[in-house]
Design brief:
The protein has one helix and 31 strands. With 376 residues, it is mainly beta. The structure holds calcium ion (4 copies).
């Protein structure tokens, strides 16, 4: 390395996005989003086989659509209008035309926004779905088993999940279900393995997970599951390889990820508590080190450390040396951005108002994509 390059590397190391000395010092690709990005959704929006991203910007009444270039960067960055305070977005084919659509929950406005995809990365809309007060997160799930995706929306103030049924591609209010007080994030699961989607919702006020088991005629509540304080993002996988779905949740108030194994009937048994750094928030499951066993990656909002926990296939997890990144990572996704078969990371930074991408090396390490030191 030349002296000039070494000096540049030192400057980058000193910068806000420096990685740990035990990782190669360089910058993650850093793609702008709207102000206060809040969550992330993944889907192939233009049909080229590479996953694309959508991020709602809570302070700007917009969602940012990022079309991947297949090299860890983005070929297109587009803002779409949403309602007030968009906090969550989901991707799914609402109208059955084979092209993926977007549904955004607008917490401030108490509405949903629908954008209809053209399958090439473009969108029509917005269409507003009114009267969903306190809509804070949602899952797209075929609740009434008619082959069309419905929207299960968490209403933070009402302590309920409201199902909006899909009638000819339009969402109309249906049944609602009580959940733990101050609910926040919902995840779609199949904890009892009956092929019908279940929902798990974390409660900020009661520190429980509410499990709603999918039945042919709607949801049936299971017993609430005690968890840590302020449960945020959840991840699903089969940690102990018994064929039953398991769950983990980042609990910001406990600086921990709480790990459960599922009993195959909807019950969850706490099996581990992983120290995750200060204020953990984002969480995703994937096999990061290529041993065929599912791992976890957790990001923090205040800790400046973001950690992969490698699964042992028996329900245990061992932390890797943390990625040190001076950024408030509020959400993340594990996905293969360069199609090399190794899981990469897309990190949503609330402090930088960006999505940062890091390439997984398939051995549990992460580094910037080639040519991705900053902007394209
Ligand atoms: Ca794509
Ligand atoms: Ca299991
Ligand atoms: Ca693994
Ligand atoms: Ca990859």
């Amino acid at each position: 390395m030349s002296g000039g390059r070494a000096a540049l590397a030192l400057v980058l190391l000193a910068g806000a996005l420096a990685l740990a000395p035990d990782r190669r010092p360089a910058r993650a690709h850093d793609e702008p989003t709207g102000f206060f990005p809040h969550s992330i959704a993944v889907g192939d929006l233009n049909g080229d086989g590479v996953p694309d991203l959508v991020v709602p910007a809570a302070a700007q009444r917009q969602v940012t659509v990022l079309i991947s270039d297949g090299r860890g960067g983005f070929s297109h960055n587009q803002s779409l209008a949403a309602g007030t305070g968009p906090s969550w977005v989901e991707i799914g084919d609402l109208d059955g035309d084979g092209a993926l659509d977007l549904v955004t929950a607008n917490t401030g406005g108490g509405t949903l926004t629908v954008h209809r995809g053209d399958g090439r990365g473009g969108f029509r809309g917005p269409e507003e779905v009114p009267d969903v007060p306190g809509a804070v997160s949602l899952a797209l799930v075929d609740v009434n088993r008619d082959g069309r995706l419905d929207a299960a929306v968490v209403q933070a103030r009402d302590n309920r999940v409201l199902v909006l049924e899909n009638h000819g591609g339009r969402l109309r209010p249906g049944r609602s279900y009580p959940v733990g007080r101050a609910p926040h994030i919902v995840i779609r699961a199949d904890l009892d393995g009956n092929g019908i989607a279940d929902l798990v919702v974390g409660s900020f006020a009661r520190h429980v997970l509410t499990v709603l088991l999918g039945r042919p005629d709607g949801f049936a509540p299971a017993a609430d599951v005690p968890t840590g304080r302020f449960p945020h993002y959840m991840a699903l996988g089969d940690w102990n390889r018994d064929g039953r779905q398991d769950l983990a949740v980042a609990c910001a108030g406990d600086d921990a990820v709480v790990v459960y194994t599922g009993d195959g009937t909807g019950g969850l048994r706490k099996t581990a508590t992983l120290a995750a750094g200060v204020n953990p928030h984002g969480l995703a499951a994937a096999d990061f080190n290529g041993d065929g066993l599912t791992d976890l990656f957790v990001s923090t909002r205040s800790g400046e450390v973001h950690t992969a926990f490698l699964g042992d296939g028996q329900g245990g997890f061992t932390p890797s040396p943390p990625l040190r990144l001076k950024a408030d990572i509020i959400a993340l996704a594990a996905l293969d951005l360069d199609r090399d078969g190794h899981a990469d990371l897309a990190l949503v930074s609330a402090s930088h108002n960006t999505v940062m991408t890091l390439r997984g090396d398939g051995r549990g390490g992460f580094a910037p994509f080639a040519g991705g030191d900053g902007r394209r």
